[in-house]
Amino acid sequence: MAACAFSCSSAAAVKSAVFVRGTESLSVGGKGGRVSIPSTSLSCSFKALSARQHGHCLEGLVKHTVQGEGSCRRKSMAVVRASASETSEGACARSYKITLLPGDGIGPEIMKVAKEVLKMVGQQEGMELAFEEALVGGAAIDEYGNPLPDSSLALCRNSDAVLLAAIGGYKWDNNTAHLRPERGLLGLRAGLGAFANLRPATVLPQLVDASTLKREVVEGVDIMVVRELTGGIYFGQPKGFGVNEAGERTGFNTMIYSVQEIDRIARVAFEMARKRRGRLCSVDKSNVLETSQLWRERVTEIGKEYPDVELSHMYVDNAAMQLIRAPKQFDTIVTGNIFGDILSDEASMLTGSIGMLPSASVGESGPGLFEPVHGSAPDIAGQDKANPLAQVLSAAMMLRYGLNEPAAAQRIEATVFNVLDKGYRTGDIMSAGKTLVGCAQMGDILLHSLSQSTESHAASLTA
């Protein structure tokens, strides 16, 4: 926690300051003395890379932008963290309240693995992690008749970070719209003010052959999709059902975006592209939709504030094709809610398995929401077949960007890569010559690898 860390007099605490890519990191927001983002635009650069390439999986900068008169002034604040050994010697304690939302389907199985990993890494890094669980989605419908009970939302808002597993299932497919599990997720994002969804799609060296596309097409793919999360057709009014002049039943929705909504997500995307490879592709359908015409106009205008970022525009149908034909042309993609929903799922499959990818949903203040990209997979729920690695990597993303604990995050990420290097695979990423394991066994292997890393660290200190 930044305020606590800066007040510590321990010289060792200053010595152990963590910088990301040579730039200071800043918390997404929340309570407990951490920095919360004021009423402007948040930018998070999450670049998922191989540990063998760059030493860690997720790398970047979280900083806030302050909009001036026609300009964007950027600030950053260093976050100093004490190591576990320094904490035991009297440095400020680091305690965090984390709300866990296991949800539906395979959610409870993969959340159990992530929780155990978090507990172990918390002990290793000298953190006090307090976990509370709440119901959301189908489980909440069954218990309370509401996909997002007020008590669940209140608990999330009062947390330092929220870790979600998965929502939905066949059981609730025929429910009326307001009683669908997905409504709980939409309400949660809106209730936390999370307007930016950040979804990396990176092909890991260990899994390059797991992709359904040719190696030469996907090897080296590293894409970040920035999706606007709280506007567009999912939230536009009016919507509903009616009857047309011919007496036929109709359904209608409204796609609407304001200048403010477009501008703030555009700045997030430009900041991210600036910290990645300097290229941003804005995806729309401006040849047909007025909302997309405004989108393109505003993104182009905001782009003038970022002369160092190369901006391009692409129609959504072409973008869907290009992601399969030549995905390495993309660096950072920014798009609206419904287009981002579709394209980010498509991009994730370039990696070989949607079961490997974390994501974050963040806003201008309050806790971030961290979750795996995949769904609830009700067809394999309760069968010990689920891949927990995306959930575990989502926990690492939460530590790095939600709680300012990059060392703990890197410890988890390195463990995941170590386990993959040893050839352990769940069914979704299985290939010839590898060792097939279930969800629970993968969790045990992760914990064993984590414990070995602690022993190795202790040995190096006494050597």
From TrEMBL:
Give EC number(s), comma-separated.
Answer: 1.1.1.85
For this entry, the protein name equals 3-isopropylmalate dehydrogenase
GO MF annotation: an example: NAD binding
Under PROSITE patterns, the record lists:
IDH_IMDH (PS00470)
Q: Which NCBIfam families does the record associate with it?
A: leuB (TIGR00169)
Pathway info: Amino-acid biosynthesis; L-leucine biosynthesis; L-leucine from 3-methyl-2-oxobutanoate: step 3/4
Instruction: From the UniProt record, give one GO term of the biological process aspect.
Output: L-leucine biosynthetic process
Query: Could you name the domain of life of the organism this protein comes from?
Result: Eukaryota
Task performed by this protein? Catalyzes the oxidation of 3-carboxy-2-hydroxy-4-methylpentanoate (3-isopropylmalate) to 3-carboxy-4-methyl-2-oxopentanoate. The product decarboxylates to 4-methyl-2 oxopentanoate.
Q: Which SUPFAM superfamilies match?
A: Isocitrate/Isopropylmalate dehydrogenase-like
One Pfam family for this entry, by name?
Iso_dh
> How the cofactor binds, per note?
Binds 1 Mg(2+) or Mn(2+) ion per subunit.
Which intervals hold domain Isopropylmalate dehydrogenase-like?
97-446
Task: Tell me which UniProt keywords the record has, alphabetically.
Answer: Amino-acid biosynthesis, Branched-chain amino acid biosynthesis, Leucine biosynthesis, Magnesium, Manganese, Metal-binding, NAD, Oxidoreductase
Task: List cofactor names only.
Answer: Mg(2+); Mn(2+)
Subunit (UniProt): Homodimer.
Q: Which SMART domains match?
A: Iso_dh
Describe the reaction catalysed, as an equation.
(2R,3S)-3-isopropylmalate + NAD(+) = 4-methyl-2-oxopentanoate + CO2 + NADH
Keyword Hydrolase assigned to the entry: answer is no
Report the sequence similarity comment from the record.
Answer: Belongs to the isocitrate and isopropylmalate dehydrogenases family.
What's an example GO cellular component term for this entry?
A: cytosol
